[in-house]
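Final report, Chapter 2: Outcomes

The project's central promise was a pipeline that accepts a single protein chain and returns its three-dimensional structure in a standardized token representation, suitable for archiving and comparison. That pipeline is now operational. To close this chapter, we reproduce one record exactly as it appears in the project archive, with the input sequence first and the structure output second.
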Amino acid sequence: MQSEFNFFQHWYPLSPVEDLDPKRPTSVTLLGLRLVIWKPHSSQTYRVFLDKCPHRLAPLSEGRIDEKTGNLMCSYHGWQFDQQGICTHIPQAENPELVSKNKENLCAVTLPVCQAQDLLWVWPDAKSADLAATTDLPLSPQVDASKGFVWSSFVRDLEYDWEILVENVADPSHVPFAHHGVQGDRAQAKPIPIEILQSTANLIEAGTIGRYQTTITFEPPCRLEYAIKFGDAGKQIGLVTYCVPVSPGKSRIIAQFPRNFAKTAHRLIPRWWNHVSERNEVLDGDMVLLQQQEYFLQQTESSQSWKTAYKLPASADRLVIEYRNWLDKYCHGQLPWSEVGISVPKIRNINENREQVLDRYKQHTQHCSSCRGALKVVRRLQVSLLAYFAITVAGVAVLPDALRVQLGLPLVITALLGLTAYAWLKFWLSPKFYFVNYVHADR
């Protein structure tokens, strides 16, 4: 049965632009499609192709951007493609006319792209580029500098499905408990009555009744945002998330955090510090819960639906119910994996290895330019501090007795302070880029 909602004919963000490397191709997966992001020398914007060379289907993401032509070169046989996906060079061609006469058959598959609100967007259906050109991007009204907002961006790959990700973000009542001590306090938890303001195939809007005026908007398939107004001065803070379906049991969240106050603090606090001290910790707290929730839901769905598997008596559950009803009504309760040739097992195995489930490096650090850069500096500082300690202690040992008393003690003290800083970097800060175990019972 054909779904009423076409997941492939919508705009999706792939990454914050600042996290992309213009000097090399980047691999990314969307809706089961392997894509490659790259930037031609002659273009101000990135391009997105299917990650397959038309020659022998080698991954173009393993290629390189040619220094002379600025085109994307496949590393298997050296075929080159310009920003329109046209093959411009085949090293094996005996006659140059072989390339010029067969351009249409030798092209890489290109997808419509756009850059807006600091994100790179793609339209995953190559056959409907005309529709893409007339379809608005699901942009947030809060990510707008002209309205006095500042914001930062964050991206992380997640070890659970898109439908679980959307359900989780649509549920504000879990925050005081799942994120206790990070973004919430379970002792302060209160009922969060939710009212559905409108619900259509293309938009679900809800509001919360309480101290702060909060509007929650879900614009399928990916934009789910909170706009929170408080105080009499028009202060507003937001959470803008894009829930990206990657493959069965895998999703990606791209989040932006806009606000129209405390702008000086926004400029002073490094982006990477915000990621290691809070953003990753929030998602760690969700990850250890949601991966197992997904597993149990799959087990029960073989004999019953979510409507009987879940117990949803409170008003705080209304948006989750509305989203699940939307998924059933317009998508038959599933994503279109079969359309890209993916066979999904009824029950996917749960991953018990917490170091893989909470692998910050593979899920975030390697994708984030700020965290990659900070980690590189941390590594260099560790080497420098350790070298300084060793050289200083050795130097003091060979000083004449008179100088050893006068200079030796201050130098040894600075060396010990450096060793303390090294230990802090190695055992406290550095692991935050890789893996930090999250145990709810310990919080």
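Archive annotation: The radius of gyration is 26 Å.
This record, like all others produced under the grant, will remain available to the consortium after the project formally closes.
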